[in-house]
Amino acid sequence: MYINSKHLQILKTIKNNQVSNIKDISDIFLLSNQHAKLYLEDIYCELFKTSSCNLKSEITINKIKYFSNAKNILKNSQQLTKNQKIFYLIFRLIKDKHIKLSHVCEELNLTKRNLNNYLKNISTIFSLYNLKLNISNKGIMLIGTPYSIKKFKFLLMFKMLVEKEFLSRQLRNEIVHFMKINDFSTFKNNLSKFFKIINCDFIKHSEISLFAFYSSFINSSKKQQTVADISFNKFLIYRPQYYDYDFSYKIFNFLKSTIFKNIPTIYLNDFFNMIDSLNPTKDHFDKTVRTKSNELRDIFAKYLGSHIYTNTNFFRIVNPWVNYSYLKILFYIDDSSFLDLNLNYFIDSNICNMTQEIKKILPSFTFFESIFLWYYFSENENKEIKNIFIFKNLPATIIPSLINEIYKKHNIKIIAYMNLKEFKQYKKFNSIDTIITVENFKIYNNNIPIKNLFFPIPNFKKVVSI
């Protein structure tokens, strides 16, 4: 049985009690009903070693949901998709610089003909980053400048970390070892401090960007000048002119006081570019991105209202997501972040219709992005509230609107909200009756009741005409 990452993603939604029929699976993963049935049948056959025959999909899903150790069984049978094999080859080339043809074919169970086709795809991708392949009887060698390799490595590590939950165990272990970050706890504390400085909302992907940047651009040679070696006045020479003095000083202090002080100064420009892609300080995006964002505005206005046209923050909010959509296409990124949310009962809304319209412009756009952008552009209501709301990977900017939607749909009033990292500190000084969350994570070592709600999808039944 051919089991891949998509099977594991569907299994996760079933285990989280988020789907009950084929239609649910089709809508969440934007699959046809026939393809959804095939995936479901594969999972059932792998677990029960028999066909589901004429079982109704609801019964099949229920049997899978209560099958113990299902994830490990599928993981043990997991095979890499074609794109995953291509990027595994790329990863090996970045890591080892040279690999033998016989080893590659054996490792990935490839014929020489398939390998040649993969290498053509890799050459096309590499050409965009001034990298080349040298193929001979001895093997495959990566050719490029150290800077070109580092820049490509950054994007490759970003892709791998976005997809890590559903990659094969072997590849995941290789990536973690390759990153060479010894103290993840200290590193994550540094990231939390950094996101407050740049006021960044793209939380999960922002963390991944910093992880990827550190593992790709950190100093590997003592001969290179690093941030630790320069003064603030020297730092100002490197920073973009549209960064004001105070913001530049905060960035400099962050770099100096954390493990990022070992970034070579020659890579500071890449560091600033990364900041701008996460939370743009200025509308510096290329013309293609701006054009696509403008096309999306009509669609958002259709479903959310004409106030979209007068929102002065529209492009600042949408451009990074459009930029990310292009990156997903370029690097074949399979982003399943939406599975971290307790999604359900969204079928009666028009969010799927809106997403399908957007996908005609940006094929890699998902309803995950649609949901968040709706909350970005929603008007907040001020209400008397109680209990606290804790989130982990959600952008902080959407939380007020999300809390308002929770009040409407669940009649639960919330008095405060915070990131999971801030919970222990908050708990020291405040009494808490109940914790509310809409994400799939657990809070241990406390006696406070926790309500894990379904993510309150906005109701789009009435489409606003332009």
Features:
single chain, 466 residues, mainly alpha, 4 domains, 4-stranded parallel sheet
Write a short abstract of this structure.
The protein has 466 residues and is mainly alpha-helical. It has helices spanning 5-15, 22-29, 33-48, 57-65, 70-77, 82-96, 101-108, 112-127, 146-163, 169-179, 184-198, 203-217, 232-238, 245-257, 268-278, 287-304, 314-330, 351-359, 367-376, 399-410, 423-429; strands spanning 98-99, 132-136, 139-143, 388-391, 416-419, 435-437, 450-452. The protein contains 21 helices and seven strands.
What does this structure look like?
- With 466 residues, the protein is mainly alpha-helical.
- The protein folds into four domains: 5-77; 82-177, Arc Repressor Mutant, subunit A (Orthogonal Bundle), CATH 1.10.10; 180-278; 333-466, no CATH class.
- It is built from 21 helices and seven strands.
- Strands 5-4-6-7 form a four-stranded parallel beta sheet, with no helix packed on it.
- Helix 1 packs antiparallel against helix 5 (70-77) and helix 2 (22-29) packs across helix 3 (33-48).
- The longest helix has 18 residues, at 146-163.
- It starts with a helix and ends in a 14-residue tail after the last strand.
